Amino acid sequence: MDEPSDQELAERYRPDLEAEQAALSNQTAQSAGARQIVELDQQAVGRLSRMDALQGQAMQKGLEARRAARHRAIAAALARMAEGEFGFCEDCGDFIGHGRLGVDPCVTRCVSCAG
């Protein structure tokens, strides 16, 4: 199979990457309140309720860390597109393949080099 051109790869994968990037930014904005400091006010909130709030805050911080990592991976993929290096293995230089890119367009290695 012939390797696709940089333009073909960009046309095929950029819309999905940009849509995912926008969705991540939206989720980050919507969950900002859940990551704020949990106030210690024993008059208004009991000990168990505060523990639940702290646990919820910790989970939201973990989710935000994963969103930030994915956001960086998408930004790197878009940068590779701009440089004409998107879709090619960073180790061997071969085309990664549409099947693998279809699962995750942010991958940087072909199946052979990833394994």
As a percent range, the share of helical residues equals 55-70%
Strand content: under 5%
Q: What is the CA-CA span between the terminal residues?
A: 22 Å
Structural class given helices, strands, pairing?
mainly alpha
pLDDT average, as an integer? 87
Coarse shape: elongated
Give a short account of the largest sheet: none
| Rg measurement, Å | 20 Å
Tally the beta strands. Answer: 0
Order of helices and strands: HHHH
- Please count the helical segments: 4
Low-confidence segments, given as residue ranges, are: none
Key traits:
mainly alpha; single chain; 115 residues
Q: How would you sum up this structure, described in words?
A:
- By secondary structure, this protein is mainly α.
- It is built from four helices and no strands.
- The chain has helices at residues 6-30, 47-83, 98-103, 111-114.
- It is elongated and about 65 Å long.
Could you give a quick summary of the protein structure above?
With 115 residues, the chain is mainly α. 63% of the residues lie in helices and 0% in strands.
What's the structural blueprint in terms of helices and strands?
Elements: H1 6-30, H2 47-83, H3 98-103, H4 111-114
Helix pairs in contact: 1-2
